[in-house]
Amino acid sequence: MLTKRIIPCLDVKDGRTVKGVNFVDLRDAGDPVELAWNYSQQGADELVFLDITATHERRKTMVELVKSVARQINIPFTIGGGINEIADADALLNAGADKISINSAAVRNPALIDELAKAFGVQFVIVAVDTRRVGDQNLVHLNGGRIATEKDTFEWILEAERRGAGEILLTSMDHDGTKGGFDNVFLKRVNDAVHIPVIASGGAGSVQHFVDVFEKTNVDAALAASVFHYGEILIPDLKAILGRHQVAVRQIFN
Q1: Element at 139 (helix H, strand E)
Q2: CB neighbours of 25 closer than 8 A, spacing ≥ 6?
C-alpha cells in the first residue's frame, strides 16, 4: 500500500522562511535550512520550498539555498519560484533538488510543462496551482496569488496532467493560513479526475484536518506550513494519530 505523505512547506522570502494568511501579512518563521533539518529528523516525508517573490520580483530562485538544504537532509525536496525555462530547472536539480515546481510560468506558457517533462521526466515536474473561488468558479491565480486569471482551475489541472505534470500541488487561497481545514470538496473532485498524485495545501489547523483530507478526498499528500513552523503540530504525533485512523503513513523510529 502506498503511504500518504506529510509535507512541510517553507515559503522563502529574502532567505528566511515566512508565513501569512491568505498569502499576505507575512511574518518570520525561521531559517529554512535549520527548519529543513528539523523536519527531516521529525519524520517529514518530503519538503517543499517556494521562493514566494521570485516570479513577482523577476529574479531566480536561489541555487545556494538548494545546495545548503541538500547537504543537510536525506529526504526528497522540491523547489519552486522563478522557474521560467529549462536552464532554471537544470540548475536547481543539479544543485540537489529532487523535483521542481512551476506555477505562474506554466500558466503563461503551458508548453513549458511539456518541455520540462521531456527534458527531465514527469516525476521531476510538479505543477502548483493557486486557486480562489470567484462567484461559482474556482479560478487560477498567479504571482503568489496577486493576479487573478479567467482560467478555470479544474480545466487547467486536467491540461497540466495531459502535458506531463507528474504531480499537482493544489492550494486553496481561500483556506490558506486560516487553519479552518482543507477544501475537501474541491480536492476530492480533482483527485477523482486525475491519474497523478495530488498534494493538498491550504487550511491545515489541526490533526483532525489531516485525518479529514485523507479520509474524505484520498489525496496522496497533505502540505502545511505554520502549524509545523510554530510547533502547533509535531509530525511524529500527527503520524501516530493518522495511523490510528488507518491512514497508511511512513513511521519514523529514531
Answers
A1: strand 137-142
A2: none
pLDDT in tens, 183-224: 999 999 999 999 999 999 999 999 999 999 999 999 999 999
pLDDT band at 16 (very low <50, low <70, confident <90, very high): confident
Q: Letter for the amino acid at 187? A: L
Give 147-189 pLDDT, tens digit per residue. Answer: 889 999 999 999 999 999 999 999 999 877 778 899 999 999 9
Q: Where are the alpha helices (DSSP H) in the chain?
A: 32-42, 63-72, 86-95, 104-108, 111-120, 153-163, 184-193, 207-217, 226-229, 235-244
Output DSSP code: residue 7. E
The CB-side HSE value for 235 (13 A sphere, CA atoms) comes to: 30
What dihedral angle (degrees, nearest 10) is formed by the CA atoms of 155, 107, 161, 220?
-90
Average pLDDT over residues 71-75: 94
Active-site option among 130, 176, 183, 220: 130
pTM value > 0.85: yes
For residue 71 the three cell numbers come to 547537504
Contact of 93 with 100, CB cutoff 8 Å: yes
Q: Is 68 exposed, middle or buried (0-12, 13-18, 19+ CB in 10 A)?
A: middle
Nearest CA-CA partner of 188 in 157, 215, 163, 227: 215
Name every residue whose Cβ is closer than 8 Å to that of residue 162 and which is 6 or more positions away in sequence: none
SS3 (DSSP) at 237? helix
CA angle 75, 78, 173 (to 5 degrees): 125
Owner of C-alpha cell 493576479: 147
Is 11 one of the annotated active-site residues of the chain?
Answer: yes
Which cell goes with 195?
491519474
